[in-house]
Sequence to fold (138 residues):
Amino acid sequence: MGSVGWFCLLGVLMPACASGPYMKYEEYYTTMGTERYLGGGCVLAGEEGLNGSSSSGAAGGANQDMQPYSIAYEGRSVGITVSVKDGTGHLLAQRDYSNDFLDTGKSDDIVVPLEDDVLRLHIFGAQDCNDIKVPEGD
Fold:
């Protein structure tokens, strides 16, 4: 399941976490026509080598009703690369978000079909890591 604000929460110890831009993301999964919010987070843009990932639907995991996938976030000096892979490691989608794009607060959706289901990542720029949406029931 997606994690909530994990990059920024870890980054609180780093002075760089105090200034953006940041890439915020919200992870949604649609199965049988119903979309549900899984979680979200925040990644500091422009931090070379800042990496992270999340995954869902792994065999034996809590989300056995979901197709397995993973999302990786890789910091670069000029922005962030987001990659989505299926359970076998096959690249399904990859996007680069520049610091300039994120600094404007613009948004983008990465939509990835996963057999009969759909993963949607809502990506947007922000100046802080406040107000990360929390999944219902958490």
In short: The two ends are 12 Å apart (CA to CA). Residues 94 and 103 are 20 Å apart (CA to CA).
